[in-house]
Amino acid sequence: MDSTAEILSKTNFSTVDWVIVICYPLISVLLGLIARKYIASMKDFVTAGQSLGTALGVATLTGTELGLITVMYMAEKGFKGGFAAFHIALAAGVVTLFVGLSGFLIYRLRAMEVLTIPEFYERRFGRKTRILGGLMMAFGGILNMGLFLKVGSMFIVGVTGLSAESWALPAVMIFLLSLVLIYTVLGGMVSVVLADYVQFVVLSFGLLITTVIAVNRLGWNHIFATIDQFMGAKGFDPTVAEGEFGVEYIVWMGFLGLIGCAVWPTSVARALAAESPQTVKRQFTFGAVSYLIRWLIPQFWGICAFVFIMTHDAQLKGLFFPETAGVEPFDARYAMPIFLGRILPPVLLGVISAGMVAAFMSTHDSYLLCWSTVLTQDVVAPMFGGHLSTRARILLSRTLIVVIGLYVLWWGLFYRGTEDVWDYMAVTGAIYFTGAFAVLAGGLYWKRASSTGAVLALLAGCTALLGLTPVQGLFGVTIPSARVGLVSIGATIAAMVFGSLLFPDRTGKGEQVLAARGPS
Amino acid sequence: MKYWIILWQVVLVGGLLLFGAMAVWVTIGGFFDIKKLFRRIAERHQREP
Hints:
The complex is a heterodimer.
Chain A: H1 3-8, H2 15-36, H3 42-47, H4 54-65, H5 68-81, H6 86-102, H7 106-111, H8 117-125, H9 127-144, H10 148-159, H11 168-218, H12 220-231, H13 247-262, H14 265-272, H15 277-312, H16 314-320, H17 335-343, H18 348-383, H19 390-414, H20 421-445, H21 451-460, H22 469-475, H23 481-502, H24 509-516
Helix pairs in contact in A: 2-11, 2-18, 4-11, 4-14, 4-15, 5-10, 5-15, 6-13, 6-15, 8-9, 8-20, 9-18, 9-20, 9-21, 10-11, 10-17, 10-18, 10-19, 11-15, 11-18, 11-19, 12-15, 13-23, 15-16, 15-17, 18-19, 20-21, 20-23, 21-23
Chain B: H1 2-47
């Protein structure tokens, strides 16, 4: 065993932990089997019969949005940016609270009783907008989840001490993907909701306990002092230009906070599955705490991992921050799982890892279900003029789940971008959500918003592709992803406004839809 | 910089306390919501076989 492998293999992860991690996902598969008998219609499959209460709504909202990928990319941000990264979490919490209290976007969407966002596009702007909107959503969304499987699997590989073994990552990826596909295909939204609930219970208490252990191990004051020592002001102040962030980035994060709760389809799917528009507002008001915590705690773990590596383990410090010129630093995404593997005791490590696997699965099932139903309900079914049977729709959704799952495996193995995972996700998501934001806000709040404006806004979202490092490489430019995202937002809003003013609809549909919606 | 340190300490501790309270509420309330969810779906299937 070479020295790197020897360093990385040090972990408290034991045989008992392996047993816990392997057995736990089987519970989710069992839930999928139980839920299957409750699936009789597309409404049951997609929105659990629109019967979610507030507490279960918060659990499933958290379960979906607090995925292992979330934990990994935010830990990476904390590891590299220190406490300054907290502004991302704070922005998300504040904006979600605003959405919950005001009902901005989500209340009116739920009041219209649509099943998906593209269904709203059709009611407001016509069928062509629905099909284009569905395609853009699926394109951006599927690209967005391209790294989920790989990064999630990196946690398992890192925490178990296998990160130096080349076979480990693809093997874990294939195992996890197989489990997710089985129970998502079986149960649809009902099984997703059950899995989300179990995941919420295990992971929320796991997050809190692990955080207490990390602070206890490193020392509260020592954590802050170490960040101050190695990062200085840029480790605390996100506005420092030479740090990881800057003002432009903060504005971009504020917008992403809004998108994450009120426009992103997996979040909106929870709003549309709620039992009433009022429940939606309560769900998001309480959910604001989850939206804060789901990013805050992983960022803090990333910070703790940095402190641990810099002050407790010289070998790891040499790996992650090599002093020899020309030596590549070890992948920063492994820092947090390796740190947890060193500080958590056996059994608890197994439970936390199992909770993370559950988080991984609950995110994957929701996203797979979301994108497959968007393609089925909003792209394929409208092409058949609504004559596709329920059975055919469910079969198509299940087939697409498998196809998307295989793509995620392929993309995870072969994508070579160099940006942080979070920035990759923000940019790929922006392909869809910048246009969707303009279309939703325009469609729900502006009578004169037209179908031409909507189509142009959706297409303008493609400008976000320029934020990806391989695309920038093609054009030979280097532009911060935050700037690309903000320009993309401006482009979609401008397209919506000018498209609507120059090419107004003559049907009066906007006034009809806005007259029929709720008060918020 | 001192201001930022205090802000992040308040956000972290406050967030953890709020989340702890919410976790207890969601765990209990969610269990009863699941029972209600299955009952409603079953009732609707009986009404609309």
